[in-house]
Amino acid sequence: MSTRGGGTVVQRFGRRLAGTVERWMPSPFLFAILLSYVVFLGGVLLEGEGPAAMVGHWYGGFWALLTFGMQMVLILVTGYAIAYHPRVQNLIGRLAGVTDSGAGAVVLVGVVAMVASWIQWGMGLIVGAVLAREVGRQAYQRGVKVHYPLLCIAGYMGLGLTWHWGLAGSAPLLINTPDNVFIEQGVLDGLVPISQTVFSSYSLTLTVLAIVYASLVLYLLAPDPENAEGIDEYVDEAELEDSADASGPDIDTPADAVDQSRLVGGLIAFAGVAFSVWTFANEGLNALNLNVVNFAFMFVGLLLFTRPRAYQEQFYDAVTATGGIILQFPFYAGIIGMMNGSGLTETLANALVSVATPTTFPAIAWITAGFINLFVPSGGGEWTVVGPTVVAAAQELGVPVGKATVAYAVGDAHTNLFQPFWALPLLGITGMRARDIFGYGMAMLLLLIPFLALALTFVPY
């Protein structure tokens, strides 16, 4: 991390925080292990659970989110595959060259990541990461000074702000999924359509305002050229040269011809996309739920690649990029098990929502989600545990369930700027360590607080 001085107050704030985080932040997997110890001690000391009981809760939760975990991995993998399609890559390459300003490059990456993540967070995460690396690479080749750590955080801003208000947001989709936990527990009498969450004027207004505000903050954080650290200070220069592979598919046998057949892949892809379109045509956008989103994006990806083998190979690459998430997801599920089994989650949620009024409830829901997300970085996973308490409190105060869900959703996204779990694929693509970039993530987290507190409270539903 550079120790060079100068710059505005905001620039110096970001640089100093980045230096502190680079020195002290543990690796993402160690982060998960340390949080497991914290929650274990919390259950023993605050809830009076015995150590053996806490270990039992940990094991009981370890495998509790396998279905949901697979849904999350599929969202990420299908988004990854689409982001790495050659046409999408060409578009990313063209976007990367539209600005010659370091601050402008950071804003460009941030806006694209936030918009793409609203559409589908897995795609947004990968597009943001690939765009950050490509912008950094092209800036290096053209001699433009762009601060690469901030550029990478800009690529992560979709996960840190807009994704949970979007089409693949776990909490809004979960309460619109048949037989969900809220209905099973009697908290809700029926589904909450996304017209009351994702497509409400409240959510859409917040999304637009958030993108504008975050873009301004990114611009202000961008260091002056003399303080900017380019991609060449973090990535081997040999990896920054142009490369191209113009070779076509190898077809040596009849089996190869079938594997590479556009007809074979195209027919089933078209059927999947057509069924998705038919579903939305008959049920409208309220048909959106996690299974529908995954189904649609899986076949959109296949329709783009068409050749089964090409899509399969891209899927394999995507699964490799999600290895860290697959490893850590059970650990966070175990944390959920300890928090839920010991009563910690309910205690924390009740303590926060008990001080809420109808006016302050959205801000309280945001804070609740943000705090719990530090320990359980799974929007849907934590929503299944904390959501019933939040929804019941909202109903008691007369706050619309859709509004409460939207407010909660951004809290879950917001503290991703501190919690490195979902950044693992981005770190792999950009060639960075968590501690290289998360100082700027924490700077964005802190600078977003005044905006979110005011917007959640005063934007009308």
TrEMBL record:
Keyword annotations for this protein, in alphabetical order, are: Membrane, Transmembrane, Transmembrane helix
Residues crossing the lipid bilayer are: 29-46, 58-83, 103-132, 144-165, 199-221, 263-281, 287-306, 318-339, 351-376, 437-459
- The name under which this protein is listed is Short-chain fatty acid transporter
Instruction: Give the classification, highest ranks.
Output: Archaea, Methanobacteriati, Methanobacteriota, Stenosarchaea group, Halobacteria
**Superkingdom:** Archaea
InterPro entries per the UniProt record, alphabetical: SCFA_transpt_AtoE (IPR006160)
